[in-house]
């Protein structure tokens, strides 16, 4: 387990900024809590308290499976891909949000896109192709995706047109359990 390089840090924060904007600073500077850090272990970026990172330094690399919250994976090309396990933090700090009606929740949780008929609410001034957090109408985070249309376009579009492209959802915990660890 090692700290992220400058290039890895830049890629991670660029990717996170697409979802949570300037709120990325809140991940490291949490008020009333201890300092948190990002660490790389086996091409996975983990988010944890600094105290936990220091304790993990005593464990050998082969014996350590994971520690903290899995935030992202680094692909073979060096790109960073945000994982659904980071949903709690993305949902908390997200600038743009979409709420899905109960009749479309199941479809989204099985990896489908959301049409206009399933759109409950959308944050004002959401631009087209903006990364968004997806919630149920009861404010339960379901996943994240990309807004297929802006807020104004959503109000004027046909009922069967796509308004949200699926990226990740909490159903992945069950579908891809082996890949998550």
UniProtKB/TrEMBL annotation:
Family of the protein in this entry: Belongs to the NIP7 family.
Cellular compartments annotated: Nucleus, Nucleolus
Pfam families linked to this entry: pre-PUA_NIP7, UPF0113
UniProt source species: Leishmania tarentolae
Family annotation (Gene3D superfamilies): 3.10.450.220, PUA domain
Known function: Required for proper 27S pre-rRNA processing and 60S ribosome subunit assembly.
One GO process term, biological-process aspect: ribosome assembly
Annotated GO CC locations: nucleolus
GO molecular function, one term: RNA binding
Keywords: Nucleus, Ribosome biogenesis, RNA-binding
Domain PUA, first and last residues per copy: 96-171
Superkingdom of origin: Eukaryota
Protein's name according to its UniProt entry: 60S ribosome subunit biogenesis protein NIP7 homolog
Subunit text: Interacts with pre-ribosome complex.
InterPro entries membership: NIP7_N, Nip7_N_euk, PUA, PUA-like_sf, PUA_sf, Ribosomal_synth_fac_NIP7, UPF0113_PUA
